[in-house]
Design brief:
This protein is α+β, with helices and mostly antiparallel strands. Helices cover 37% and strands 24% of the residues.
């Protein structure tokens, strides 16, 4: 009997061990498949070097940046020797593109459903980290993060800045929020096993400012895959809708978020515009709120603008493109003849045509921008300003008027991440490098944080005062 019990126990233990080993073997094979081969990294860097030296729409200031970029590429390639995780690859290659100082030229952090992330998301405003959503009641939305694992907010931001891209700090700051949630992966605990059969949370200490109180709390990581479900049980800070309409007395307010006209969105957007312009019939003023809007497709604003004109209208801008086989589609778009790759930067006058749509709006136009207005939203505001069709209110943009455009987004299976780069650049002659409003509204850091929390909107209040006075 005793022998039978022993055999039974041995069989149970052996089964458990075999199950564990089998599970570990499966997870190990998954882990190996996710590694990035050094040859793939080298190939991708060579591709980017060709893009930067042969097809990138440079400026006079680009030569020094290009030299630093090439030096960084050569240095990283000399250090490649073994396969590495996608997140480690990102940490190696993104600082190279960061040297080009262009928000449209970058690698995006890789995604793996098993990544361990902090149980809250954040946004960075003037070097202050604000929680926007949470999956842990100890870290409520709206709280300010002062420290994580003993590192101050400023130290955390400084440690992540090389993993961003942009012409200035303000543009880079907007990318840091997502990276903060990825801290457990970006700065992975060296003692953490590379292969885990079962998910194990990782403890972190976070110091917060909640109202007037400072608290230190202990939290545990969650998987990036589970975060959306877990966070849905908690309050979040308000976010911009793709498009919405409000009214203040006799002033219509059209607000734009960041969206694309894919799928059913195109029809929804058209129906929205038709309905709202019917409602605005006879209204004297329309305030177009483009704060924080970074729509990349100008078609969004073409559809909108055609409700604001009563006769066919054209708009012209200077666009520069390099004569390269890499840019064939863009050269064709702007009507530039291509015979061979000369790597010459060619500037052409690009004309856009607009046909009036009904219902139309014939009142006075105002545009509200902030420093985060960029891409097609910035181009739209700039176009209306040049046409003298609208008064600009707000603050100067961080994105230059002559920013890069026609951005390509590609996912690299070998690199396990997405990257982007532009194929053209606007090149208008302007006294100001950025868009400067006619009516400047000064806002403090606290004002920006209150706006993000949805508790107060100083800029909109001041803009409405200006519009109602009809200055």
């Amino acid at each position: 009997m005793k022998i039978g019990v022993k055999l039974f126990v041995i069989l149970i233990i052996s089964g458990l061990v075999l199950t564990f080993l089998l599970s570990w073997s499966i997870e190990y094979n998954k882990y190996r498949k996710k590694l990035v081969d050094p040859n793939e990294i080298s190939k991708t860097l060579n591709y980017f070097q060709s893009i930067v030296t042969e097809a990138y729409p440079k400026t006079v200031e680009s030569n020094d940046k290009e030299r630093k970029f090439i030096e960084a590429v050569d240095y990283v390639k000399s250090k490649l020797s073994k396969k590495m995780s996608a997140i480690d690859t990102f940490k190696m290659v993104q600082p190279i593109l960061s040297a080009l100082e262009d928000q449209n030229t970058r690698f995006y952090p890789p995604y793996d459903p098993n990544y361990k992330v902090l149980p809250f998301s954040t946004v960075v405003i003037d070097k202050r980290i604000i929680v926007t959503s949470t999956a842990n009641e100890k870290v409520p939305a709206g709280a300010e993060v002062l420290e994580i694992d003993g590192k101050s907010a400023e130290e955390l931001i400084d440690s992540l800045i090389d993993y961003t891209s942009g012409e200035n700090y303000g543009l880079r700051e907007q990318q840091i929020g997502d990276l903060i949630q990825l801290l457990p992966e970006i700065f992975r605990n060296p003692h953490r096993p590379k292969v885990e059969v079962l998910y194990r949370s990782e403890p972190h200490t976070v110091t917060l400012r909640i109202g007037d109180k400072t608290e230190k709390v202990n939290v545990e990581t969650v998987s990036i895959f589970s975060y959306p479900t877990l966070s849905s049980s908690y309050d979040v800070l308000p976010s911009r809708q793709p498009f919405e309409y409000q009214q203040s007395d006799e002033v219509g307010i059209m607000k734009f978020g960041t969206f694309s006209l894919s799928g059913t969105m195109y029809n929804r957007y058209r129906e929205f515009l038709t309905q709202k312009f019917l409602e605005m019939k006879g209204m004297h003023d329309l305030l177009i709120d483009l704060r924080g809007c970074s729509v990349s497709d100008f078609t969004v604003f073409k559809e909108f603008f055609e409700h604001l004109i009563s006769e066919p209208t054209t708009s012209q801008r200077n666009v520069s493109v390099v004569l390269s086989a890499y840019n064939l589609s863009v050269l064709e778009k702007y009507g530039i003849e291509y015979k061979s790759s000369t790597n010459e930067l060619v500037t052409t006058l690009y004309t856009q045509k607009f046909a009036p749509r009904t219902p139309s709006f014939n009142g006075k136009l105002w545009i509200l921008i902030d420093r985060y207005t960029s891409d097609a939203a910035l181009d739209f505001a700039y176009m209306l300003m040049k046409m003298n069709k609208a008064q600009i209110i707000g603050e100067s943009t961080l994105t230059p008027i002559n920013h890069t455009t026609d951005v390509v987004y590609q996912y690299s299976e070998g690199m396990k991440m997405t990257y982007s780069y532009p194929k053209a650049r606007f090149s208008d002659k302007e006294d100001n490098s950025v868009l400067v409003p006619s009516y400047v509204v000064n806002v403090s850091t606290e004002d920006r944080i209150e706006y993000t929390k949805g508790t107060r909107d100083v800029m909109l209040d001041e803009a409405l005062e200006i519009v109602k006075k009809g200055e």
